[in-house]
Amino acid sequence: MAIDHITHIGKDNYIIIQLPNDLFKIYHTGTEVIHLGKYGSFYAKDIIGYPYGTVFDIEYDENTEKTDIVLNHNFTKKSKKEQQHEPGVTKPRLNDTSQTLEITEDILIENFNSESNKLLIDKGSEAQKLSTKDIELLKKNNVNTSQIIKNIITNNENFNLKTKQSQEKYLVRKFKKFSKCFKVERCSPQNILKFLMDKNDMIRINDISLESIGLQLNLSNIQSNGNYLVMDETGGFLIYSILERMFGGLEDDETKNGTITVITETEHPQLDLLKYSNYSEQFLKKTVKYLSVMEFLKPQNEEEIATEFKVLNQNLDINVLKNIDSDKITPLQQRKLNWYNKQIQIYQISQNFNHYDAFVVQTDFELKDCIEKFHKFVKPGCPIVVFCKFREPLLDLSNEYLMKSTNYLSVKIMQTYCRPYQTKRGKIHPVMTMKSNGGWLLSCYRVLGIDP
After folding, report:
1. Model confidence at 162: pLDDT above 90
2. Three-state DSSP class for 33?
3. Domain shared by 231 and 168, yes or no
4. Same structural domain for residues 314 and 350?
5. d(CA 174, CA 196)
6. 265-302 residue pLDDT tens
7. Between 20 and 30 A from 153 (CA), which of 18, 79, 305, 382?
8. 133 and 209 inside one domain
9. In angstroms, rounded to a whole number, what is the distance separating the alpha carbons of residues 28 and 13?
10. Domain count of the fold of the chain
């Protein structure tokens, strides 16, 4: 039975793994062994076929030799290869997709708690009677994570002096440190965004937030069977997001069609994030077309292309063509044929005035020049949506050009801002460390005005 790669983990796919410390990492299931650092390692084949969102536990056989390092004052530094565990056995939690600590309630009932922290005395490491060697010994003996945490709490003198909220936070910290479980998620645009946030690499996608990319797609009215003109300076993240809205990860659905024409700064665009989409190369080649700015604005016409490419005589006998051995075509001739086909395609695309259903922009180019030169390719009554992480360029675009032209209607500038909150039992407060905002969006509609 074939695996549905949209809902289940497939072979040779990119996946997102959420670690116990809430960090996100990208791995490929085509590798034999997946290493999770201090959390252990496992064979990639063991997770194939399970639904996305499944939580797995890594367990080791008691007889398996591991290279755990016991911290002491005289330890010798081992190589990275020696420090890695032998791959463990992954056991899925089919009825539980939560990485949160399950033993919290039991421990809070068994242990008393204080109404306030005023009796709490900061003893540092002296409050913990269980030594590091004892904890390492429990880990080597393959003791369950819950039992390890229970032993740590039992031997902590200050635990009973903490409030219930402080005890819960303490349990979560210990769980993130000692847990061997991980959750496998689909490599969707949302999860890629979380991955880049963890890497502190949001500059690659212009510091856009999840709310901003969702709003931009909504304002652009992205849907199946549409043709869209895109300027993407996010490494392919915007293109992948549009593909998800159009196809939802499905390549063989005959009811879903459409194309994306990407205007790039250079002839060879840098779209490294697009590889995580798990779309086949054949599908991307058919759906996504790339043109540089110069190719789009100043393409060679058919006469100029014909002068650089020798066309066969129309009176040539068709039987002669059938007898031509394709193996005799030289690499130079094949390159010339590929060049000819590409130039014809560029010319045809560049003549598609009033063709596209939306113009979606995330670029470092001058915004006024982009809108002025490319708006004629958008159908009348269709949207133009521009994202910028700063408000001032959008204000200049709106006040100095769009509002003065009769080719645009309903010009709006908006900001997305979603503040996350931390919730505890009987307590809620905003997260102290967060992004200031998710950027700014400008939207308008192209109409047939009297401007040239």
Report:
1. no
2. strand
3. no
4. yes
5. 25
6. 877 788 899 999 999 999 999 999 998 888 888 877 76
7. 18
8. no
9. 6
10. 2
